[in-house]
Amino acid sequence: MRKLKVAVGKRRMHRTYPGAIYFVLIAFFEVVSSRDNMLPHHLKLSSTLTCRLIGGLTREQRSVCHDAADTAAIAFEGLQMAVKECQHQFRWHRWNCSSLLVKSSNPHASAIMKRGFRETAFLYALTAAGVSHAVARACAQGRLISCGCDPLGYRAAHERGRTRTNKWEWSGCSHNLAYGVEFSKKFLDVREKVDDLQSKINVHNNNAGRSILSSHMEVRCKCHGLSGSCQLRTCWRATPDFRAVASTIKRQYRKALVVAQEELNNSPSVLRGRPRGRRRSRARPAPKSSLLFFEKSPSFCEADPKFDSAGTSGRVCRIGRTTRTGSCDLLCCGRGHALIRKSSIKPCNCTFHWCCRVDCQRCQDDKWISICK
């Protein structure tokens, strides 16, 4: 009887905390990457087993995961970073990426990734950039055994064909963007079919995200010398703050191109698109940093699992202009909103006493927030 109770308890824990598996796997992957040569053979094999526990992977992706388990773990970190940034960028939109975190640690398992919406195009570009960003930075940080600093170095990449302006300038450890982009293609583009038009659009959006990341690479320098005289300077190329990359992808989302209808019936070698709402305009070859979509987005007003839409009921909205992002009129879809008082206790009327004590009173802070019905 005691053994039976233990088995039931384990089953309940598995059902209650499915998301905890991801964080355990990430911790395990990091141990494997740092102590790979010290681990016995049976522990190395267990890293292969963990690749099967991440949902939504294709057979080809699992093969990549088995071959480079430590890099795949960093790739999953990049995917989660992309999901969190998606939630920030769309926090005042009807669809706010909230379903991507609860579905799986892999956002590509979400139903919306199988559609052709503008939001889908944004997600493909953002996740591809996120994987490239995370892997490139991990290489320079020494977290991976398969790569290191950018072998080209700062000077070869930044000053190719130019004369050296300062002979006392050294090249630091640049983030290995080339390796990050290569693994992003190897891990994400392998999901797509060769002759399928939707797959070609997905790969184009993946490349758009990577292209935007590459265009945002920064040069950072550190001065050395007495009193900051900068007699010696070390420079390196670094990946930017990911929010800047996501904001640029969001701007491309606003002006995403619709794939020309005549393209949907063929198998074009060059994808063409036209601006949204301009059906009569001539379709042109899509720039490499533009986003492409082919399906009109739903309203996302009501909950619909087919689109991974949680609806907008219960969302916080803004009272004000109807055209304002996140306004109650737009976000609540005409259902109206309710005012709710939110109370909290905060320190106030603080007094400093010499030395060294601060005494504060506890005051109630009331705020009124608008909630969509």
Automatic annotation (TrEMBL):
Residues 273-285 have a biased composition (Basic residues). The keyword Heme does not apply. Keywords: Developmental protein, Disulfide bond, Extracellular matrix, Lipoprotein, Secreted, Wnt signaling pathway. Residues 268-287 are annotated as: Disordered. One of its GO terms (biological process) is neuron differentiation. GO terms for cellular component: extracellular space. GO terms for molecular function: cytokine activity; frizzled binding. SMART domains: WNT1. Belongs to the Wnt family. This is Protein Wnt. It comes from Bicyclus anynana (Squinting bush brown butterfly). The gene is LOC112058532.
